[in-house]
Amino acid sequence: MKKTHLLLFLFLTTPLFLIAQNAADAKQIVASYDLNKIQERQAFFKKKEDAEKQKAIVYARNNNIPVKKINKDGSISELMKITPNGFPIYYATDNTNNANAARSTRANHLNTGGSLGLDLNGQGMTARVWDGGTVRASHNLFSGRVSVIDEPTSTSYVLHSTHVTGTIMASNAAAPTKGMAYQASARTFEWTNDLSEVMDEVQLGMLISNHSYGTPVTNGTTPLPAWFIGAYTPDARDWDEAAYLSPYYLMVASAGNDGEDNNNTNPIAYGYDKLTTNKVCKNNLVVANAEDAVVATNGNLTSVVINSSSSQGPTDDMRIKPDITGNGTGVTSASSQTNTATASLTGTSMASPNVAGTLLLLQQHYKNLTNNFMRAATLKGLACHTADDSGEVGPDPVFGWGLLNAKKAAETITGNGLTSWISEENLAQGQTYSMTVKSDGILPLIASATWTDVPGNPIIDDLTDNDSTPRLVNDLDIRITKDGDTYYPWRLDVDPSSPALRDGDNFVDNVELVKIDNPNAGIYTITVSHKGTLVSGSQNYSLVITGISSTFSLTSTTPDLTICANQNAAYSFNYKQTGSGTTTFSAEGLPAGAVANFNTTSLSANGTVTMTVSGLTNVAPGDYYIGIKGTSATETETRYKTLRIFNSTFQNIALTSPANSQNGLSTTVNLKWDSQTNAENYTVQVSSLYDFSTLDVNTTVTTNEYIATGLNQQTRYYWRVIPSNRCGNATASSATIFSFDTGILACGSASFTATNFSNATIAATADSSASVPVTVTGGYTIGDLNVRLNITHTYVEDMTITLVGPAAIGSPTIILFKEPCGDNDNINCTLDDSGSAPACSGNPSISGSIAPYDSLSSLNTLPANGVWTLNVVDPYNGDGGTINSFIIDICNLVSVNLATPTNTLATVSVYPNPTKGIINVNLPEISGKTILTLHDIQGRAIFTKETTASSEVFDIENLQEGVYLLSIENGGNKTTKKVILNK
């Protein structure tokens, strides 16, 4: 464990999470989320954060430093984690009048009494705030609208968290302290476990979070290592994953207050390269700090100056960071001393809530007009697109895209389709999107594409300073063309002090913006394409265009829909037009067989048009992009919505593993099957009886895999998977049935002890490792495998311990421990899937039977012969140890031939049932001749067929609707299945 240098996380901004207060809104937001994946990552991040915090506490004790400090000026610092290279990381707060902040970002134009007449004050919205301590929720300016989620009974109120919360949502009781969204509510959190708590909150429909803390370039007199500054670290990657899994969630983060700190020993350029950790994310919005802007009464920016303390970018791969600028200089807001106290603070900590609260109003405005919230990429793209260009022409690593202009952003939302364009699109692999727009030759023509990108590969070591490898995964491209001329997006020059360029591709940013400063009047073509292979086969993106003119607009007021195939999908659109003329409506992208009807086929005045899509009963389940196209005498406009279709007719699930009739399996079996587009859930059933009259396993999962445990030895099991969705459930009787036989586990005689300890020493230096091999012989098949370990090591949490199998079976790697426990010493235990969690106490701190980090059961049925290796990796300074012993115990799996049951017809299935005409008869366990006879309900034979196949298909569409009986005879066994014909 390294005991040098401090890495201080300066408190730059406060986490603000926006979420709809209405439960229906939250449900709509998360409808497309993979909640199971989010919950899995939430648990992972929580475990990681807890381990990091425990290690930090031990570090503080060993180095006689406080874990948390509250300074005389009200600032807070708290030790949170230790980097692998031994740098302690602190979260810390630093220490403009809210009215000036609102004027600078033009939030006041959105509030009641503002020039736009929108009355946007945050009504019905709830902000999330993460900060360094308890907010004084009883403050008069909060008027009962603040909830303290962490430590709700604490009375140790913190100035910084109270002040930031006030900047977002303090009431309008006094003009100088009025928050941006002064009628919103707030849920507030202490900053410990912030990421895992974020993953919890996104499941409730959170839209925005604000984070006013970060890592400064210098702590005292010790600068951070140059490689760390500007690097895409694992912390940045984790926050990008949170955003990717939750596409409506936008993290708003302060840039930092290191603008005058030039202690980076190897910057990209002098005076630049000062962003660290999650300020280097791709998918968040990082905010710089400007002084009070000079703004005319009409909202136009006259001038703005950056606060010299505001941290400069860019990232090491030359992405445009910070993203945007807010006002955080001399901000007056609520204070924590009393219920009426106020304070004036300066920093990016104040600029960030200024921006976050303002963005909340834009989400509210969009929801009011469309009955939908914007995806995070849309909100981020809109903010960057409409910002007032400040500093150098084009984007720069000081202001980002410029000073937030909420008035222009709101006007862009209001004018969508007439004077602007905002849409949320999807680009498939190999696809190019194209549309034409009309410029009147007066305003600049600007088009931008923004997307929430797949998390990139993080930098985890110090091998290279300023590693310029792009961290972008899905690389989209936007272009504007006219008359053979091509206009390219902005990108930073390799010298960040030079003006930005727009003469070619941008390979690094997930905000791409093309600007034609002085366009000629006429028609321009905007295209969006991509390079390479898109992860997952497609990429959602948001398109914003300004400086255009159109004679009509279509704005959706219906969310994307998920329906059953026997239902209709109705999408409503507000129609507006300028001047006279008629617009006719048609559908685009309908699946084959579907029909679109309109409540009106044309309009010549403002109104509402509803497109109802029907005839979906024969449409294959899946996602479709349905468009409504408006056509006037001079132009066309197409708006797309997503339609997800399920139906109640299920295909049999294809079972993949174990193979049918496979024998010699262990008593723990990993069941796998092919996923289906039409399935939302899968019921897994395992039984030792052919008819499943008693069930050993009966559980419902959302993934296509399940581990069945606790099975009996020397037993034949039958298993099936039954799909279901919101439209219905497949019938169990029609499900494909596979069988497998468990073998006999012979335990107690196959133990293999390591003898080669030549590389068993774990050094006390950073990035040390050790390994010990053991050779397994005897031709055993793994039915169960345990590992016995004895390791001497102070501070066991430094270690990650893995077991690697022989190359002949693919070198499977099982993580046994991943930085377990904390300030505890030594391990002497047995790793067993049925073990418990380590007690992390005493000496040895890990003893007895312990469950490994990864399951050892994945090794079952593999041949055991070969060299197995125990690997220990310790990336931290200060602690070392030795592998003293390593033993592998194997239960040999002996395959046995089980007798075939007499009632072989128990596994026969007939589907679909009811049927419209086609009958599938599945005969999985049958050999020899089978006689199939169909009778009507009165017992009269309709037809008879003999077969030796394992399946047959019949067409009875020509028969009358009703109930029929299918007789199945084989080798003296007979069964009858009821068949319902329902045409």
The level of helicity is 10-25%
Number of H- or I-type helical stretches: 9
How many β-strands, per DSSP? 61
**Strand portion:** 35-45%
Spans of at least 5 consecutive residues with low confidence: 1-21
What quaternary form is this? single chain
CATH superfamily of the largest domain: Peptidase S8/S53 domain
- What would you call the shape? globular
- In total, how many domains does the architecture comprise? 5
Estimated radius of gyration: 32 Å
Query: First CA to last CA: what distance?
Result: 72 Å
Mean pLDDT: 90
Q: Biggest sheet, open or closed, and with what strands and sense?
A: 8 strands, mixed
Structural class: mainly beta
Which fold name corresponds to the CATH topology of the largest domain?
Rossmann fold
Q: Overview of this structure, please?
A:
With 983 residues, this protein is mostly beta strands. It folds into 5 domains: 8-411, Rossmann fold (3-Layer(aba) Sandwich), CATH 3.40.50.200; 552-646, Immunoglobulin-like, CATH 2.60.40.10; 655-739, Immunoglobulin-like (Sandwich); 746-894, Galactose-binding domain-like (Jelly Rolls), CATH 2.60.120.260; 902-983, Immunoglobulin-like. It is 12% helix and 37% strand. The chain has 9 helices and 61 strands. The strands form 15 sheets. Strands 2, 6, 7, 8, 9, 12, 13 and 16 form an 8-stranded mixed beta sheet that branches. Strands 37, 39, 40, 42, 43 and 44 form a 6-stranded mixed beta sheet that branches. Strands 45, 46, 48, 51, 52 and 54 form a 6-stranded mixed beta sheet that branches. It is globular. Mean pLDDT is 90; it is low at 1-21.
